[in-house]
Amino acid sequence: MDQVNAVAGKVVLITGASSGLGESSARLLASRGAKLVLVARREDRLQQLVAEIIAAGGQAVYQVVDVTKAAEVEAAVALAVARFGRLDVMINNAGLMAIAPMSARRVAEWDQMIDINIKGVLYGIAAALPVFEQQNSGHFINISSVAGVKVFSPGGTVYSGTKFAVRAISEGLRHEVGGAIRTTTILPGAVASELKQGSTHSASAEFVQAFYQQNEIPADSVARAVVYAIEQPDNVDINEIVLRPTVQEF
């Protein structure tokens, strides 16, 4: 199989594309010839990324999107169809990891994680699914975490709850729409990104920073997994990819 041609020409929308896993995936997919729609909240980062991709000969557009607002996610999907005529892959990547013990009662942070990590994924599915159904083809790639396999402790109870939810939603979606529409869940361990900066609870933030310093691998590790899932033949559905640093025990 020609891996470059398997990705070339595919229209891919990535949420949370301004840094980390989303940015690395955008750069690698662009180098393989994908047409990209990149969305996030930080316009300056999106502008720079798109400019660099275009300067390197790639194709990309961006739109400022808050994934907690369904109408904004729908508008991004509409942009993909208007600009490129279709949408082949929806990567629901935007996420927040606010680690803190339950006793700290960071209820506002619980709400944020639910809104971004769960509802943001659902809004991405709701926006892209009608397009995929009309095309009779499409591919959802939802970014969960190894914290969606085993509860991250200490302090990761709610975060893990959101990532378990992403895994469950992805599997249920596969059962409902599988056939012409593929569904992949990617569950990374400690990967270099801004995710580790999401904790405002001081003791938890110190723990997370130390954990990542000891374990993290580059974000392009996940980007390669994304490409691997996309480049498979249409009759192959890579359902889950769990990847960890070799030194990470959790």
Automatic annotation (TrEMBL):
SMART domains: PKS_KR. PANTHER family: DEHYDROGENASE/REDUCTASE SDR FAMILY MEMBER 11, DEHYDROGENASE_REDUCTASE SDR FAMILY MEMBER 11. Keywords: Oxidoreductase. Residues 10-194 form the Ketoreductase domain. The keyword ATP-binding does not apply. This is Oxidoreductase. It holds the Pfam family adh_short. It comes from Alishewanella tabrizica. Coiled coil: none annotated. Belongs to the short-chain dehydrogenases/reductases (SDR) family. It comes from the Bacteria.
